Amino acid sequence: MSEAAQTLEGWYALHDFRAIDWNAWRALSAKERNAAQDELLSLLHQYKQAEENKTGSTAFYSIVGQKADFMFMHLRETLEELNEVETQFNKSILAQVTVPTYSYVSIVELSSYLAKPGVDPMEDPDLLARLKPILPKAKHVCFYPMNKKRDGADNWYMLSIDERKTMMRSHGMIGRQYAGKVKQIITGSVGLDDWEWGVTLFAEDALQFKKLVYEMRFDEVSARFGEFGDFYVGNLLDESKIANMLAL
Ligand code: 76R
């Protein structure tokens, strides 16, 4: 048996994608629509407080294309808290006019492939901050789930840890060239959801998603072993963008 990579886990993550039923939204009275919007803003305010109290973080983005209209990415300490946040939204007025289109459950994960030997990760404040990250308020988000292949000679899980380390080093080197342009949060989902990882990328310039993901396609880890689910890409929603989105 080859050796599993050591992983560190942080906050649990829920990516929650919704489409808006515009006919149902239109059918609400102006009063109900206002109440729905106020309620959404108050939920967002509550999420912000979780961030200030360092008990979690939430990102809220519109989604471009037909896969969804918006998504929340919630990070919380426990699965129970994630469940509460999800249920609380489900009880809101806006949720009554949305259709769930996709969700993803995972946990912030750092793997030890590139860890410095002899350093106790729990003593490294940078690492600890990355396990419980405040999600960036970048203009754009890109999310997709992925697996590492288990297919004949291309079985990631049958490689020795040294082979995997070498490949992950190359992966990390490509990634580092995007420092300051793309922020990645890797969440592990083995045993939690249908794919093995969720990849969430944040950037001010959405084109950098294409540049980064394309460049990685040529790198061995992705070229030989990467299997990808659906891609979701979107734009940051703040108060004025929410008002625009919901205005009739
Ligand atoms: O955590 C670190 O920064 C150390 C280096 C590193 C690891 C261990 C790293 C760096 N990644 C790691 C692990 Mn990554 N990453 C992806 C994708 O589309 C594709 O082809 C793949 C999707 C992108 C775009 C990306 C970006 N990474 C992982 C893992 C876990 C693997 C395992 O445990 O087997 C996955 C699934 C994965 C996938 N990676 C980086 C990036 C970027 C931009 C970096 C540099 C980050 C930085 O230096 O700040």
TrEMBL record:
Q: Which InterPro entries match?
A: CHDC, ChdC/CLD, Dimeric_a/b-barrel
As for family, the record states:
Belongs to the ChdC family. Type 1 subfamily.
In which organism is this protein found? Paenibacillus thalictri
Which metal ions or organic cofactors does this protein require, according to UniProt? Fe-coproporphyrin III
Binding-site list for Fe-coproporphyrin III: R130, Y144, P145, M146, N147, K148, H171, Q184, S222
Task: Write down how the cofactor binds this protein.
Answer: Fe-coproporphyrin III acts as both substrate and redox cofactor.
* Keyword terms of this UniProt record: Heme, Heme biosynthesis, Iron, Metal-binding, Oxidoreductase, Peroxidase
Query: What EC numbers are recorded for this enzyme?
Result: 1.3.98.5
Q: According to its UniProt record, which reaction does this protein catalyse?
A: harderoheme III + H2O2 + H(+) = heme b + CO2 + 2 H2O; Fe-coproporphyrin III + H2O2 + H(+) = harderoheme III + CO2 + 2 H2O; Fe-coproporphyrin III + 2 H2O2 + 2 H(+) = heme b + 2 CO2 + 4 H2O
What protein does this entry describe?
Coproheme decarboxylase
Residues at the active site: Y144
Stated role: Involved in coproporphyrin-dependent heme b biosynthesis. Catalyzes the decarboxylation of Fe-coproporphyrin III (coproheme) to heme b (protoheme IX), the last step of the pathway. The reaction occurs in a stepwise manner with a three-propionate intermediate.
* Taxonomic lineage: Bacteria, Bacillati, Bacillota, Bacilli, Bacillales
Pathway(s) annotated for this protein in UniProt: Porphyrin-containing compound metabolism; protoheme biosynthesis
